[in-house]
Design goal:
mainly alpha, single chain, 9 helices, 205 residues
């Protein structure tokens, strides 16, 4: 008679784990909606539908649409920040750390992040509730990303890092917008290449 094969007991998730999972599903669905439908087409109903979550569960986590939007942006940037931090840790052995850092900022401020953030900021211009909710989130995330780069180049003066960081961020945001409205797809590579040379000259000056 064969001996039954025992299987490990299935571990049930705790209430806190289920709640966090629901929250992540809502935030990820919000980002998807912003990218696919734009802010005007992103309804709470559509977010819940894509997340597979009830409206009641959504309201338990986020009381208003503005709050959901702000936290969705924070969620996305938090993930990108973690990826950027991992990449920055490998810069010590990079022969051209400054150029690589500029590439990392381009990756962070373009693509999905750029599309979702642009939708929110355009909407926030005429939506006081969304603007009030979004502004502190954006500022906090900007400071956190800035600190990552300040730590990566301790040998560069704070004044130079500040200029390099914000010039790079605004250049990359502008290039990302240019691509979104049909700009030359080769333009970012060319202009970022020129900016890397200028940035190197600033550091060495």
């Amino acid at each position: 008679m064969s001996t039954p094969i025992s299987t490990p007991a299935r571990t049930r998730r705790t209430q806190a784990e289920r709640s966090e999972r629901t929250r992540e599903q809502l935030l990820a669905a919000t980002i998807d909606c912003l990218v696919d439908l734009g802010y005007a087409g992103t309804s709470v109903y559509e977010v819940c539908k894509r997340a597979g979550v009830s409206r009641g569960a959504q309201q338990h986590h986020f009381a208003t649409k503005a709050e959901l939007m702000a936290h969705a942006l924070e969620y996305l940037v938090g993930r990108l920040r973690a990826e950027t931090l991992d990449a920055l840790h490998g810069l010590d052995d990079d022969a051209d750390r400054l150029a690589t850092g500029i590439d990392l900022l381009w990756q962070s401020f373009s693509g999905t992040l750029s599309t979702a953030a642009m939708e929110l900021w355009v909407a926030a211009r005429t939506d006081p509730e969304l603007r009030a909710t979004l502004l502190p989130v954006d500022r906090a995330l900007g400071r956190a990303t800035y600190e990552l780069f300040r730590e990566a180049w301790p040998e560069v003066s704070p004044e130079k890092i500040d200029s390099l960081y914000w010039l790079t961020v605004n250049l990359t945001r502008g290039l990302a917008l240019d691509l979104m409205i049909g700009g030359d797809p080769q333009r970012p590579k060319r202009l970022l290449g020129e900016w890397k040379q200028l940035a190197a000259a600033i550091v060495l000056s």
